[in-house]
Amino acid sequence: MEGIYMIDLRSDTITQPTMEMRQAMFDATVGDDVYGEDPTVNRLEEMSAQLLGKEAGLFVTSGTQGNIISIMSQTTPGDEVIVEEASHVFNNETGSLSFIAGVQGKTIQGNNGQMDIEAIQRAIRGEDIHHPRTTLISLENSHGDSGGRVLPLDYMKDVYELAQKNHISVHLDGSRIFNAAIHLNVEVDTIAQYADTVQFCLSKGLSAPMGSVVVGPKDVINRARKWRKSLGGGTRQAGVVAAAGIVGLEKMRGRLKEDHEKASHLATGLATFGCFDIQVADVDTNIVIISTKKLGISAHVFVEKLYARGILAGALDDDHVRFVTHRQVEMACIDQTIQAAGAIVNEIR
Ligand SMILES: *Cc1c(COP(=O)(O)O)cnc(C)c1O
């Protein structure tokens, strides 16, 4: 590690590839993936499909690319897609829903990522010459904006059944689906069964240097492969990076549990100060969000004060600070973070 050592709790995306990943990348057998001839990419795609219980998979550059490609493969420009108001697809993907996919987002307010089932039902358009066609519902599990909250299985089942009844598809932004699976204590295909397509990230807690995978029915994935090409995502000897993704899937899923323990420990420690508006029971996975409102300072100032104590965190807005736990913060770093927060509280009060 170069420079001053910082405890970096901004995101699980900062995780560096493990030595085993680097070795696998070095050793990877590769070919031209645009010809479908990279055996390592093919293996990652097959593994992914199998793991999530789908017919086929597609290795993509990023979660953002995977989401937009999934949406494009299941809609036609002019259609309407039902999205949760705080979802990543709607808020954090530069508006690609409208300007790349050419679809209209119909937002529904959510509660920890859960849109009311009846509100979804009402949002689905009937036959009318004036209306767009509703062709897709997008869900997010775990849900980032609410602090990594997990959608319950029965909720996902209800949404999926409603979608099927109305002949519309469900896309799951499962960027952190492995975190959700650990929280629910189920295999990941148990979650994925309630969506037609799923995108998951290799580059977050799983620690691969880059990449996501989209899984779904063969015909959808075939279309997705073409859209990936349109968006400049057709790559050549991509097995060099896919190899790290394979190690991520094989070796790194189980250890995400430790990240959840660290987040829970952090929330427990921060809750003792009584001013951060944090409920330990609300921490489902590896994200902790606190409010600095009661303390009377802005989230930006709080983040600066943490920085001065060697800790990096993210200000979500004027009042909220986000911490994301991952492989590269030890439990001792969490204790240090709690101590630093306590020192800031004492300084302010
Ligand atoms: C990270 C993330 C994405 C986007 O992934 P990138 O690889 O950063 O493009 C999409 N949705 C959610 C919920 C995420 O956490």
Describe what you observe in this structure.
There is one protein chain. The model has no long low-confidence stretch (mean pLDDT 97). Helix 2 packs parallel to helix 11 and helix 12 runs parallel beside helix 14. This protein is of the alpha/beta class. The two termini are 36 Å apart. The protein is 41% helix and 16% strand. The radius of gyration is 21 Å and the shape is globular. The structure holds pyridoxal-5'-phosphate. The site of pyridoxal-5'-phosphate (PLP) has 13 residues, from helix 3. The site of pyridoxal-5'-phosphate has 13 residues, from helix 3.
Entry keywords:
349 residues, alpha/beta, three-stranded antiparallel beta sheet, 16% strand, globular, binds pyridoxal-5'-phosphate
